[in-house]
Amino acid sequence: MIVFTEKRQVEKHLQGLKDQQFSIGFVPTMGALHQGHLSLVSKALQENDFVVVSIFVNPTQFDNATDLNNYPRTLARDTELLNTVSNQIIIYAPEVSDIYETETKAEHFSFDGLEFEMEGRFREGHFDGVGTIVKRLFEIVKPDHAYFGQKDFQQLAIIKKLVEKHQIPVTIHGCPILRGTDGLALSSRNERLKPEYKIAAPFIYKTLKSAKKQFGTKSAKYVTEWVENAFSNHNLLQLEYFIIADEETLKPVSRKSKTKTYRAFIAVYADDIRLIDNIALN
Length: 282
Prior knowledge:
By secondary structure, the protein is of the alpha/beta class.
């Protein structure tokens, strides 16, 4: 297992592989790896000769300093875990200064309005931070293919838009959400859930499944109000938002159309841990 901490090192190593016509897959992560990450890595290994996994907690995409400070950092465990998967994995685990050099500041991006919906409404500057780090990582790794989970569906849409607008030569792959046996979407933040909240959290996916069933016969307004009411009666979980949106534009639906594809998006606080999830509706 090769672990690089400096971009000049990983760039030199990857150029050597590319000179030999090897294909490069890429899985960007913030570490605290779980089976969801490993499913992305496995997919990348199936479709490429080598896979780069970046492990970097990106400060510019956090709008909450406490969340940034508390985000789990487990590089030794992550390296050990990846070492059990394949010897074709290359880890890039830089310091903040290696990515941002003298100024830890996000660039400003336009994603044609995608950045103003859902997460963009509640996390100011978040997608500028995401765009900044993903663009810089793409410039360093120069992958042929990059893999992202659909749990962060809005992020996936924005990265596709980033690649399109900046003409970055990489193919983006969205991979299915991996869930625990209780239905909870796998997330690094799940590790921080207190026992009672860990028991309560699967209510999120249970509610999403009920919303999907109702969406077949009910209006988006009805389903939204039903979900909001379900969480208002929950004594542990606090709903931040539930939105039914057009998958392409991410704009909330006002009137259903048979020609459009819809998805329900949700953000919930379990104590001080913020959990997001989504589900395809049709």
